[in-house]
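Cross-posted from the bioinformatics board.
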Amino acid sequence: MGERGRPKGASGEESRALLLEVAAREFAQNGYHETKVSAIVKGASLSQPTFYLYFKNKEAIFEELESLFHTRLMAFIKQSRLQPELEFITVKARVTHNLKEILAFLDKNPYLTRIGFYLSAKADAIKAQIVEQIRDNLDYEVRAGYFRKDIDTSMVAESLVGIIERLTFTKILTKQKRPEEIANDIADLLLEGIRNREG
Amino acid sequence: MGERGRPKGASGEESRALLLEVAAREFAQNGYHETKVSAIVKGASLSQPTFYLYFKNKEAIFEELESLFHTRLMAFIKQSRLQPELEFITVKARVTHNLKEILAFLDKNPYLTRIGFYLSAKADAIKAQIVEQIRDNLDYEVRAGYFRKDIDTSMVAESLVGIIERLTFTKILTKQKRPEEIANDIADLLLEGIRNREG
Amino acid sequence: MGERGRPKGASGEESRALLLEVAAREFAQNGYHETKVSAIVKGASLSQPTFYLYFKNKEAIFEELESLFHTRLMAFIKQSRLQPELEFITVKARVTHNLKEILAFLDKNPYLTRIGFYLSAKADAIKAQIVEQIRDNLDYEVRAGYFRKDIDTSMVAESLVGIIERLTFTKILTKQKRPEEIANDIADLLLEGIRNREG
Amino acid sequence: MGERGRPKGASGEESRALLLEVAAREFAQNGYHETKVSAIVKGASLSQPTFYLYFKNKEAIFEELESLFHTRLMAFIKQSRLQPELEFITVKARVTHNLKEILAFLDKNPYLTRIGFYLSAKADAIKAQIVEQIRDNLDYEVRAGYFRKDIDTSMVAESLVGIIERLTFTKILTKQKRPEEIANDIADLLLEGIRNREG
DNA sequence: TATGAATGAGTATTCATTCAT
DNA sequence: CATGAATGAATACTCATTCAT
């Protein structure tokens, strides 16, 4: 029952999950084409035919990882939107909180994030959906008087996604900064701007 | 010199340039692996051996396109940095101007942009360099008192690159907005923030 | 004994017979290579290892079906040869009767017929044996003065097998004509020929 | 320019033809599945990629051989039907002549015959077409008063094809008898029957 | 008797790359 | 300058077959 030297009759689900895990890492690190099925099964200490026992083909396992990312992220975003604004003293606190949640999620799923954000052909669609959600939120905040009425919420939402994407890869996945730090920085940047108002 | 029926004895440079042009389009549209050498030469109405007359291999032509993007972009940025601040009445005007220049450059080189920003393995290095330049500028502006002293210029520079990247692909290359519009939006967003200061 | 929900402890012979049945149908319909062991066991609602409990390998089950056909057919022919000629008023009646018997046998075993006549590598040997039997009969009839002395009985026997084979597949197995009709047609054709002797 | 040791730059058509030739032999001798692409190219002293230079895949070359057989045979039958009946003194002479022509054709194309008659999935369709042609001829002869009016021409045509098929494989391709002999035997058998009319 | 899980061995196919002309 | 013809090397995928239970 140990991980290594596991007997032939291991649970099929275990093998499947293992393949998914290894594949996620391989795809994230090497890209789709550079990742060979042989490498995936090797990483899982299984043989090639076993791979095809659980996945129709290489594309299928990749798509499953895409879906996994998409589904989890969406569930996450939906859930975090539930936080009633009342819980927070300030808008900034709420924005920061929500950003932190998302960034923490991405931080916890580095391989899937790389796949879903960079490698996937559906990355654009996924991001577009996120943008949509964010813009809805922005529109609401504008109407509520928290944000300026003259901003192009679509453009701001796109910008935010661009920022999240970039900082996730350069600051968070590299462990240079923690999600809460980055969340705070982003909220501050977008809410206040960088112009010096003193003096 | 005609497009079709170009005589056999056409200048080698012409063939070379043609190959680069076709390759840029193919790579940008289909990615590195999905782009076959056979497709490139077909698009240029040449044979496969001819391809190897001008490029060592597939990787080489891709790298040349990467370099092309990198070189041109750097030259561009360097040049646009030359604009003395005095020429502008306000910081915002200068920031807007510089952004517009960059965005216009990307807009004019859509295929190379896709290659240099998305596809290239060196994309990270290229972006890092851009970030560096931007951060230098930011640091200068901070010292000059134009920007807040408490911002993390590295983080802001990364954010700006993330924004540029995303808006270029979603708004500019799709022709939804013109460079100057986006430049203005970005400058406003980053300088002022979105918080509603009225009321 | 029910079709579905057959208890686990079903008789092994039942499973074996079921596998043979399904295999016969599959082989007949799709050929040897196109028939997968996985398809056979699926058709029998059994697992792959169970297949190997009853048959050494895929080839073995195919060979068993070949033998089945061969054995049954030979038994049949032998038995039908027992009919003493005296029982029939005319040669034609006897020939027709014998043909009908064979055709009826093939008609009743469509899958085995397809296997034994078309698919089997031993088909040639089987047919050769049938030819042999028929030629013996023909030789006897020639000596008895019923048939022309100048015919090449070997060639006629081969022709008859060719006719049987073809008409079985095109007229009988397709249910276009019944064995007795075809038997009669063949007997008439071979005994009388098609030349118009009137006028 | 010799057959062996032929330089790399041989005519493409030559290589293609060679592949077809080798493939025909291999398919005829070993069947579709047992014939490996590797064996075909080996027989042609070429490499595997070269195979795909001329044929989309293994199926494609097989289909081309099927077509070749079909086309040639049809052309042959059509042409031989042109022989005006007047050229022959007797019906039997004409029938014999036509049979000989067909058998000679099959004799000359043993590999294609095996492919087109046995291996091809389209064999049935091809034979059906031949049957059709023969039945047309028979109908004509019946109307002309040469053949009995009470025969089922469809059944006789099928029988003739069955005979041709079988005798081709057992007597002609094995070189036991020559086409003209077999043609004569078949004509005699079908026209006169085997019943002894003497005595 | 029966099977979930796994695999060895094989095969078609693709693609970048190179001769010889 | 240009190419028709050819290939080395690699990879995804399939299928009959077998453990261990």
